[in-house]
Amino acid sequence: MFDSELSRRLGRALRLEQSRSRVPSLVAGVVRDGAVAWADAVGTADGRGNGAVGVDRQYRIGSITKTFVAVGVLRLADEGLLDVHDQLDRHLPGTPIGETLIIDLLAQGSGLRAESEGAWWERSPGIGWPTLEPQLVLRPEARGVFHYSNVGYGVLGRLISELRGRPWLDVLTDEILAPLGMARTTARPAPPHADGYAVHPHAELIMVEPEHDADAMGPAGQLWSTVDDLARWAAFLHAGDPAVLSDEARLAMRVPRTVIDVPGQPWASAYGLGLQVFNTDGRRRYGHGGSMPGFQASLRFDDDGDAVIMLANTTAGLSGRLVPELFDLVAEHAPKDPPVWVADAGQRELVELTGTWYWGPAPFELRTAADGWLELSPYGNGRGSRFRPAGPDTWVGLDEYYLGETLRAIRVDGRVSHWDLASFRLTRTPYDPAADLPGGITGTWS
């Protein structure tokens, strides 16, 4: 738990947002080390001053639902039941978008229409799959360009249902929610829950918003949840649980796939595989926002695992400042301590690999990291990367240019003579003539 002074500051920020934005009720929480470190609620159940709300109240989370659907699809990939680069028609035949790639649906780069046909689907009774009629609005050559599509996630929910042979929501409940202990995350409201309201923009009046089963569009925004349950979800998205999803697939969710590009500006947000990626002054945060009539929600976490959750029962009107402000307050008043350094005798066998190596005339430092990983860093400009073990004397790159590339130690008489890195050679001295250097050395140092 945070100390009383930080809790007071966080609570004041929450109350200012509720008052200034005229929200019937507002709940927020901060997650640290996988647990709720602070949570608070302000407002009343009916929006008219009757019945104070608590942090255990359930709210509709809208498009945060998409993060669960994405994990459901990636579980299918983990099991080999699909490849995310498959065309949809291979697993869900008969749609007019059969050539669309599953990965493009996950990353909001499919070019599908944003919303379903007919009346405003979020405020209307749900339609069934046969009448959803997914259609492209962007030409196929625009594949990979960001275009947010609620319909696309309706399609992904149907994909889960087809491959599992039962409703997508039953699948997610059994395979994700139950293992993570998220009993308060449901498809329909379960007491105590908030009612959804619209607040009049020019008067102190509220109106009840409808709630319904969105049916085929449910995977785009059906779920309800609480701060505590979403704290569990944030902890999973950050640290993982191999019983739910492989770490490789979970980390792939964070990789920006489609960038929300504003000409003349550095990119501030992108979309991964079911996760939004936020780029603020070079610091990455991940998560998703959500809205349905009567509700707005947000979940974000950073690379250190701190997360902020916000739930509100208003259709519109929030300032957008609360979540970043809560992050800033925590960073200022409760910065995470750096990890305690301890020696690791298990790295003894790797010491001979470390030190200075040369790519031609350019020096690089190679050092060990935890779990047998290696880190290659240039002295000055150059390409560096982290490498994870992939077999005897073999590592695989994890960053930028060397992502997926192989680093292999070449031994002569039992000792490492040089490294092979994506066909380049790293040697102990600049252009070491004793090393294997394809093409030879055309000159000598003089």
From TrEMBL:
Note the InterPro entries from the entry.
Answer: AmpC-like, Beta-lactam-related, Beta-lactam/transpept-like, DUF7586
Domain named DUF7586: residues: 348-428
Which Pfam families has this protein been placed in?
Beta-lactamase, DUF7586
Domain Beta-lactamase-related, by residue range, is 18-316
The signal peptide annotation in the UniProt record is none
Among PANTHER family, the record links this protein to:
D-ALANYL-D-ALANINE CARBOXYPEPTIDASE (PTHR46825:SF7), D-ALANYL-D-ALANINE-CARBOXYPEPTIDASE/ENDOPEPTIDASE AMPH (PTHR46825)
Protein name, as recorded: CubicO group peptidase (Beta-lactamase class C family)
Please give the organism: Microlunatus parietis
